[in-house]
Write a structure and sequence with these properties.
It contains four helices and three strands, in the order H-H-H-E-E-E-H. By secondary structure, the chain is mostly helical.
Length: about 130
């Protein structure tokens, strides 16, 4: 006996309930994942700021040692000279809007007017 394929063939489309269940599952996964991604992004930005400040401080210390500079002096260890004299390959750019400042010898560098201790003490600071 031959079957008529057009009349006995089942529909292969998804039902509305199946689509809604899939959308619900995706929404639940996003609700779990997005806050964790935002937290990781914030932590990475903070670590980048701290690492850049330490790198600037290290470059400034090497420059001061070679130039024989003491606390309170800037000499050839200013922001631009740290790059041109190759203590830094390039001046760091912050992960958020702001400017790094090397400051004088004996003073810690800053980002947005705050030093590394301030950034380390405030891990929950709003980083956009």
């Amino acid at each position: 006996m031959l079957f008529n394929q057009t009349t006995n063939q089942k529909s292969r489309a998804f039902t509305l309930v199946e689509v809604m269940v899939v959308i619900l599952i995706i929404g639940m996964l996003l609700a779990i994942a997005v806050p964790n991604l935002l937290k990781a992004r914030k932590a990475t930005r903070l670590k980048t700021i701290i690492a850049n400040l330490k790198q600037i401080d290290d470059a400034k210390s090497r420059c001061a040692l070679e130039e024989g500079l003491r606390s309170g002096q800037t000499g050839r260890c200013s922001n631009n000279n740290l790059v041109t004299r190759q203590y830094l390959q390039k001046w760091p750019v912050g992960p958020i809007p702001g400017v790094y400042n090397a400051r004088q010898i004996g003073q810690t560098p800053t980002f947005r007017g705050r030093d590394v201790d301030w950034w380390q003490a405030r891990p929950n600071h709003n980083l956009l």
